[in-house]
């Protein structure tokens, strides 16, 4: 491709309304243009990259024998009424009426349609298991579309759906999809993690999200560098510290005038916060108050807490009046000693504490050297805290570290949810009607392009992982329109590369070299060859790799082979 015949619409200045670097660079490099809030046009250069991502996804889906189909973007309301989601899905669902006042929606996802196809098409259980996928446009009326194509309203998703007679078969396919996703993100050359998205239920209903690691990510992920363990910090399991037994000291009542805050108390008593216990008072399901105990240096995880039987959902703090009438003492001095009528839940790390500090249930007083015994007890031990960096990984393979992630994929064992709701049954080998199991598997194709840029850029622009680059090699001739020598050498190399089927872009614009360099760096072409008279007189050209600072001189005769070698690496 020659730039003179291409649509290279790069911008000089940083777009004013783009917060994220990927959004800025996608606009600046001329990959996308905003049409309206959350709606983007993909210009030829951007589309070329998008297609490369699609191709890899398609190849890996085909490799596991998933079958590609294509469903309409617009879906009849009846199907969504059957599944119950017409009302449940909320305002992200864009609803439309046709000229006959029939109700439709613009599909945000396709479980209903694929289940409908299966219930009308499936002839025998022998056709199961089966997996379908499509690469197609979705619409979600996001409350806050932002960051360009990272969270847009219209976007392209690869969505896949699998059907099974038994849950074990669903688990096998889930595993296959998991590994297909690993291959996809490996091939795309991205740093990513498969993150446990729901550990709650026993068997089935498993779910993993795939996150590209990047500072701009909306999610905070805890992972173990020594193993595969990764989970959203909201969901990551906290293991209790291994405590060694120490002698129990005698409990002492201390004066702590007006000190209710853990940090101030730690300073006042010259005691580490990790040896102190704080009481959090929540509304119970059946009790007016439930006391939760956390170490002074830990914070409550509301998602884990909301799953406890005793706790009212949504998680609600007990009000001051109930606290004071229950304990006869202000909130900052509450602790577990001598408490009888309030259920107490201790965090795993609190249950192993010895000789700790806690509130004494008297204004301006705390206890020190408190230990678990008849006078100081808990009813339940639970994991209710937020994990912190340095915690033991739940698989015991190392310590957790945190990173930000962008969710680019999601796999989910749906079970019988949609088959049941939509009356989808199949006769099993005994002739009995069975409700099939289902899995769903999404990849945000358009979001991947933005996520890749978040992870791979510098001050000059994008540094594409080679498989995503719109062109592999940029040829930049200096004086193409003035020097016959430059023109001839450039054309020769260009033709050579084209005949080897290499995606090469020749910058034949009559521009200053600085402009050409800046553009090729901005759009992120991995390899660059500069051809100028001075070097050509010595039979040389200059080579530079986009991701390296320094350039080197190559003999013009060796240049082609050198590039081929680089592309193969
Ligand atoms: P998020 O938590 O980011 O809203 P989601 O849980 O709603 O994502 P899924 O329903 O699992 O997403 O959709 C599958 C994939 O589609 C996501 O992993 C993501 O990569 C992509 N995706 C979802 N919403 C958007 C959006 N508004 N813009 C671009 N891509 C999206
Ligand atoms: Mg969403």
User: How many beta strands in the DSSP annotation?
Assistant: 30
| End-to-end gap | 23 Å
- The assigned structural class equals alpha+beta
Global geometry: globular
Strand content: 25-35%
Bound small molecules, by name, code or SMILES, are: adenosine-5'-triphosphate, magnesium ion
Rg on CA atoms, Å: 30 Å
| Average of per-residue pLDDT values | 95
Largest sheet: 9 strands, mixed
User: Total helix count?
Assistant: 16
Helix content: 25-40%
Give the uncertain stretches in residue-range form.
199-204
Please provide a brief summary of the model:
The chain is of the alpha+beta class. Strands 3, 7, 8, 9, 10, 11, 12, 20 and 23 form a nine-stranded mixed beta sheet that branches. A five-stranded mixed beta sheet has the order 27-26-28-29-30, with helices on both faces. Strands 14-15-16-19 form a four-stranded mixed beta sheet.
Describe the structure.
The chain is an alpha+beta fold. Helices cover 27% and strands 27% of the residues. It is built from 16 helices and 30 strands. The strands form eight sheets. Strands 3, 7, 8, 9, 10, 11, 12, 20 and 23 form a nine-stranded mixed sheet that branches. A five-stranded mixed sheet has the order 27-26-28-29-30, with helices on both faces. Residues 199-204 have low confidence and may be disordered. Bound molecules: adenosine-5'-triphosphate and magnesium ion. Adenosine-5'-triphosphate is lined by residues 109, 140, 142, 151-152, 155, 157, 407-410, 442, 444, 446-447.
């Amino acid at each position: 491709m020659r730039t003179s015949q291409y649509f290279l619409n790069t911008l000089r200045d940083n777009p004013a309304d783009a917060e994220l670097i990927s959004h800025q660079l996608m606009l600046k490099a001329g990959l996308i243009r905003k049409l309206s809030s959350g709606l983007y046009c993909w210009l030829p250069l951007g589309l070329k990259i998008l297609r490369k991502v699609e191709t890899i996804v398609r190849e890996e889906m085909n490799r596991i024998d998933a079958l590609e189909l294509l469903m309409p973007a617009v879906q009849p309301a009846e199907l969504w009424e059957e599944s119950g989601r017409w009302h449940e899905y909320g305002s992200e669902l864009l609803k439309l009426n046709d000229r006959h006042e029939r109700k439709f929606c613009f599909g945000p996802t396709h479980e209903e349609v694929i289940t409908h196809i299966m219930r009308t098409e499936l002839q025998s259980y022998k056709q199961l298991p089966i997996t379908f996928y499509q690469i197609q446009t979705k619409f979600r009326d996001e409350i806050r579309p932002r960051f360009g194509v990272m969270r847009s309203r219209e976007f392209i998703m690869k969505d896949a759906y699998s059907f099974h007679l038994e849950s074990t078969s669903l688990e096998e396919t889930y595993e296959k999809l998991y590994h297909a996703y690993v291959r996809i993100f490996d091939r795309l050359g991205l740093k990513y993690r498969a993150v446990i998205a729901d550990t709650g239920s026993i068997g089935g209903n498993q779910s993993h999200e795939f996150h590209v690691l990047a500072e701009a990510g909306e999610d905070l992920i805890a992972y173990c560098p020594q193993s595969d363990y990764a989970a959203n910090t909201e969901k990551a399991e906290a293991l209790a510290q291994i405590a060694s037994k120490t002698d129990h000291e005698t409990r002492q009542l201390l004066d702590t005038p007006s000190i209710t805050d853990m940090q101030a108390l730690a300073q006042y008593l010259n005691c580490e916060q990790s040896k102190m216990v704080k009481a959090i008072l929540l509304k119970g399901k059946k009790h007016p108050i439930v006391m939760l105990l956390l170490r002074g240096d830990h914070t409550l995880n509301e998602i884990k807490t909301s799953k406890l039987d005793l706790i009212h959902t949504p998680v609600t703090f007990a009000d001051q009046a109930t606290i004071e009438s229950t304990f006869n003492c202000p909130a900052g001095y509450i602790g577990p000693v001598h408490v009888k009528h309030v259920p107490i839940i201790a965090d795993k790390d609190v249950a192993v504490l010895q000789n700790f500090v806690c509130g004494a249930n008297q204004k301006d007083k705390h206890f020190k050297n408190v230990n678990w015994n008849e006078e100081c007890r808990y009813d339940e031990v639970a994991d209710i805290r937020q994990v912190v960096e340095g915690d033991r990984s739940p698989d015991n393979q190392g310590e957790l570290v945190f990173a930000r992630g962008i969710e680019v994929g999601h796999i989910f064992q749906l079970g019988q949810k949609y088959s049941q709701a939509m009356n989808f049954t199949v006769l099993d080998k005994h002739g009995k009607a069975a409700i099939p199991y289902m899995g769903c598997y999404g990849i945000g194709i358009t979001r991947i392009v933005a996520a890749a840029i978040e992870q791979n850029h510098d001050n000059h622009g994008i540094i594409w992982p080679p498989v995503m680059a719109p062109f592999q090699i940029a040829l930049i001739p200096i004086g193409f329109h003035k020097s016959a020598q430059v023109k001839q050498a450039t054309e020769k190399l260009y033709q050579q590369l084209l005949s080897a089927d290499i995606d090469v872009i020749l910058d034949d614009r009559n521009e200053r070299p600085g402009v050409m360099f800046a553009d090729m760096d901005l759009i992120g072409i991995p390899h660059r060859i500069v051809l100028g008279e001075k070097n050509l007189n010595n039979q040389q050209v200059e080579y530079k790799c986009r991701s390296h600072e320094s350039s080197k001189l190559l003999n013009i005769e060796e240049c082609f082979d050198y590039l081929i070698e680089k592309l193969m690496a």
